[in-house]
Amino acid sequence: MPELPAAADQSHLEDSDHSQCQSILQLLDRVGDKWTILLVGTLADGPVSYNTIMRDIGGVSHRMLISTLRGLERDGIVERRALATAPSNVEYELSPLGRSLIGPLEEVMKWIRKNQQLIESARSVFDAEANPKLM
Amino acid sequence: MPELPAAADQSHLEDSDHSQCQSILQLLDRVGDKWTILLVGTLADGPVSYNTIMRDIGGVSHRMLISTLRGLERDGIVERRALATAPSNVEYELSPLGRSLIGPLEEVMKWIRKNQQLIESARSVFDAEANPKLM
DNA sequence: CCGGATCCGGCTAGATACTG
DNA sequence: CAGTATCTAGCCGGATCCGG
User: Fold this and answer.
1) To bridge B34 with a disulfide, which of A28, A65, A75, B61 should be the other Cys (CB 3.0-4.6 Å)?
2) Are the beta carbons of B32 and A33 separated by less than 8 Å?
């Protein structure tokens, strides 16, 4: 079983403050992950089948989608249900825990959509100042 | 100028839907970034000097801190002010745009702190079910 | 003290091919 | 269709040295 999250790498065990911190950093990686945020967004409205997800999220590879879903399932954020239909089909949906994540992440998405233009122009200005000659 | 964000890799230019999407994905990486989230948190209370940041955030390397700060400065989220003191000193603070990010990210941090235990036990359960023999 | 540049090992994630 | 396994290139990030 390769490729599951890799969990605990802390070699020399550390005092509780540090391991507490480690755990938070780990969760930041999970929750802040690009695909996690997008995935929670597409699952927010109810159960969705695998290929629908694949279609809805542009630019995610098969491999990344599967492994992100596994990770979220492991963390108790999504639930997986295999339907016994003729062409095999699988549905994913948010658990209650996962649904409680919608609010916070939706805030972040709203912020991004609202400030997208602003940030892009800030980048242009910054790049121009840093490299006036190249413009 | 190595190592700045790398901005635009899209070779064959794409229709506006796709480039729009690309831009959002990019911002997700910036905003969802572990160090970004922690950094906005420590800058939330006002201007902070470089070494204070370094001390406050455990486990960040010099290189990552500098490059994250550069990226955030480029995006107009933090402002950098070099003080003309004897041992040179630099302060960073959130721009108005950066301050508007505090709310959304604070929501995420609250969610993490609240559900940390829950997630860890979900992981244990999942791992036990997946590998009953190894337990 | 701040921060840029370089080197380099390890991990990430895409492509691909194979199972049920 | 859903999922797994293998191979591989490219990036990320830590260590380190230098220069302001």
Assistant:
1) A28
2) yes
